[in-house]
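Here is one chain, start to finish.
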Amino acid sequence: MAVNTAALRVPRLSLLVTYVILAALSLLFFAPFLWLVITSFKPEKEIFTTVWPRTWVWDNFTKGLVHFPFALYLRNTLLLCAVNVVGTVLSSSLVAYGLARIPWKGRHVLFALLLSTMILPGQVTMVPLFAVFKWLGWVDSYLPLTVPAFLGNAFFVFLLRQFFLTIPNDLTEAARLDGCSEFTTYWRVILPLATPALATVGLFTFMNTWNDFLGPLIYLFDDRKFTLSLGLAMFSSQYGSFWGQLMAVSALMIIPILALFFFTQRTFIQGIAMSGIKG
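Its structure:
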């Protein structure tokens, strides 16, 4: 059978053009990160005057790490990340299980109300939440930054509910026939099957907590409780800014996020892809 080479060239050419466009867009989005890394090796006098450093310096990294208590702030940040990841995964998955796997009257109305809360921007609830936490005496502690994680997150509840709906009902029914309670079914049957979606929620929560600046800025006053995002603000003041050190420490802060994403990329994409199959 003769192969039509002309017919094969068109898909290959189209695929090549697609790859070229995607590569160009990737470079466009990668440009700010590249500028950040290059700037971290520049001396202060060349940061805003040259594109490529004439003199490569490493002092920005060493000076930046001692400009503020990096180890202490790193420990505080990791503590907040761990608590928020655990709280968000447990609470959001439990609510999503009740909305997706347990038939009860009014759950669809409650789910719609839950989704409607996503319309409100965080700036609207910022002042009322601060007043509540101040009344509780939680200001200048980690409680305002961790306790809400154990109360569920509307977006993550939606994400997990969509994933739970893709799990066959036969598994849940079989567990109930074997005498399992709803919590046992949730813990031993549903959660092990929802690893991709749970990993996605954990990754999003870790990234949000790691990069959060506004929350610690509002609720933390003691500098011994500061996070890395607040530590970066110390490089800029009314007396001057240390841009090279700021870029160096910012580049170091991006490394854990990049490493976490690359190691969990397949699970992350699987969790996102399978969460919107069934509505």
